[in-house]
Design goal:
The chain is of the alpha+beta class. The chain is 38% helix and 20% strand. The chain is built from 5 helices and 4 strands; from the N terminus they run αααβαββαβ. A hairpin with a 6-residue loop joins β2 and β3. α1 packs across α2 and α2 packs across α3.
Length: 152
């Protein structure tokens, strides 16, 4: 998808605050209100703008443990991967899941209110899965950077 400089300005503004009124967005992006509205709809229909959401503070929401969970599969078959990925989709504690290269097959970003909750999650939802050979947890001590903004 080709983006104009006005598109990039508009998208950068939306990434910082999607609640801005359309007149302000249009003015700051250097567009008319009508063209701004139309372009936003086009970008949504094209799938570039996936959703508009509120970003919550995990700690204030009661999630005090953040874990990078590395998972190794029993077998590297398409069926195993599909089954595990389908399983992960249904786990609300998993914020992100990546298929990765190296010694492990997946990396999951997991949140939990406390260590007991995380231990229960690991022992009931991940380790018993038939596609999982092993899992290794790395606990986040401090988040140094977090951004959802793409560098447009």
């Amino acid at each position: 998808m080709k983006l104009t400089s006005a598109d990039r300005r508009l998208l950068a503004l939306l990434q910082t605050d999607v609640t801005r009124n359309q007149a302000d967005l249009a003015e700051e992006a250097g567009m008319s209100r009508t063209s701004c509205w139309r372009r936003m709809r086009e970008l949504e229909e094209a799938g570039l703008i996936r959703r508009k959401v509120a970003l919550l503070d995990p700690k204030l929401a009661g999630f005090n443990i953040e874990v990078l969970l590395f998972v190794a599969m029993t077998e590297h078959t398409d069926e195993n991967r599909r089954d595990f990925e389908r399983h992960v989709q249904g786990l609300p504690q998993v914020l992100e899941c990546f298929s990765v290269s190296g010694d492990r097959d997946y990396m999951l970003q997991v949140i939990a209110p406390d260590m007991d909750s995380y231990t229960s999650f690991l022992n009931t939802e991940v380790l018993p899965h038939p596609a999982v050979r092993s899992a290794s947890s790395t606990f986040v001590l401090k988040r140094v950077k977090y951004s959802t903004e793409l560098p447009l």
